[in-house]
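Feature request, filed as a ticket because there's no other form

It would be nice if the structure record came with a short human-readable summary line next to the C-alpha cells. Right now we just get the raw output. Example of a typical job, pasted below so the devs can see what we mean:
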Amino acid sequence: MEGAYSRENIAQAVDSLLEKLRLGAKLLTITTDNASNNKALVSELYSILLDRFDTIDNPSPSLPIIRFEGLPSYIRCITHVLNLIVSDILKGKLLLFNLYS
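Raw output as currently delivered:
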C-alpha cells in the first residue's frame, strides 16, 4: 500500500479488493486486532460501501443490499486481546520474580 496507513487509504484498499472479488454485498463482519485505526477504517469503509449498496433497513430497487453495518459489524479478535492480557500478566510475574530473586 502506498502512502500513510490512514483510515481513508486502508478503507480504499479494502474496498478495491472487495470490488475486484465482487464480495462487497457479501461482507458481514470485519475482525481485526486492537490497532487504533481499525475502528476508523470500519466507519470509513461503511461510508464508501453505502455509495454502492443499500442497507436492509432502507432498500431500494436499484441497488443491491449490503449486510455489513459498519461499527455494529466490527469484531475485535478475542485471541489477540487474550494474548495482550496474558503477555501483560507474564511481564508482571517476571518483574516480581526478578525482584524477589
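Something like this underneath would help us a lot:
Strands lie at 30-32, 54-55, 65-66, 74-76.
The helical segments are 7-20, 37-49, 78-100.
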